[in-house]
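Fold it.
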Amino acid sequence: MELENKDQWRLTPALESKPPAAPVREIRLVAVEEYVQALRSLAPEITEKQRSMLIGHANAPDHALTMSELAALVGFPSYSAANLQYGLLAGKLADALGISQPEFLVYVIASFDEDPDTSHSRARMYPELVAALHRLGWVETERGIRSAVTDGVNTHASLPTSHAEADGLLTIEQILSTLQRQGFIRPTQSGLKVVRLEHPLLSTPLFVKQSASIHARAQAPLVLHPDYEQKLPDLLAIAGVERGSARYYHNSNLRGFPKRRNGGASDIAYGVDLGFRQVAALEELLAHLLGVEPRPGSAVASDPDYVLQSDIDLQDLALTDTEREALIKVRIGQSGYRDELLGYWGGCAVTDCCVPTLLRASHIKPWRAASGAERLDKFNGLLLTPNLDLAFDQGLISFDDHGQILLGEDLDPDSARALNITPDLRLRQIDPRHRGYLAWHRDNLFRK
């Protein structure tokens, strides 16, 4: 049986117990629309586990679960983990609602009563919050959750990863998060019906169609500039990429896109819309658009079949089986290449960071442009912290023949300072064999 320790509930959301039963609401009545607006504003900050807890809680019989049941529902090892995550979410929700944080944060989400069958304290989600989740469409995307709780043992069925995945299409959330992982940023002038995203390597933005729920799916949510129409045969050849039902998607919020007449009284902006069956398909399309290799560890880069079919050219296929296997492992991050860089650099090639999990092995001359031998050459590799790695990969910084950092014109001073990228940084050591690769990077990738 779960034990009660009120002091832990009061002092920290890292809880090892439950809150006391509270059949009476402990916060003011919050309207459905207030919850809707608060959840919308918090959507980018809510983790997948927290979202799954909300959805599972709302779908439970009578919207009531013990914290142990809630933990089991989303795969947490104990109710203390569920307490922690729900407490963190509830604190943010209280701030977004403009209400004082209650003694026990979870009261922002639910009241508590005793389960008559087990005597465990049960969190009963407020009906206004349940209604808000329905209005947002979050609950509707997670049907099929079944509860069979007997004798205090939870046997909830596993949550589907998303309704869109069940239907074979990525959700809007998955598309947005994948774009952000690939370095796309969202400027403040995004429209209400579409989200505008920009990338330093692209001269035109991309747009993603909006929905009341970021878990919703659309047939073709990603909108490209019409200039990409001539590349559609190549893009549609990527497994898992599909085109919208019409030739063009029209929306007045596609700012910067050309306009055409579409049956109305005036011209309207238009673009080419695409949909995706899996994240790997979207990542491959983005790599094609950006002219870069998929990041190690991405869904594309970690797929050996993709590596064999797309990344290893005919020259590599002529190598011995041992060499070819080594190349494949380097490409998907499973070889000693990173260890070799760790051994050579001893930590970040620029800073003194020596935490392996915070360091990325990056080719100076990218995989797509390097020969088989260059791909395996440790002098074609830098070990960098994530901020330096991404800036180097995008050509925002480079290094001269003496290892001194070079800052590109597209990296504005404020952003550089925010990333702790300063003009006095330099490679901690440099070998003559680095210089040819660095010269290639300066000539071909560096945005001077």
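The chain has a mean pLDDT of 75.
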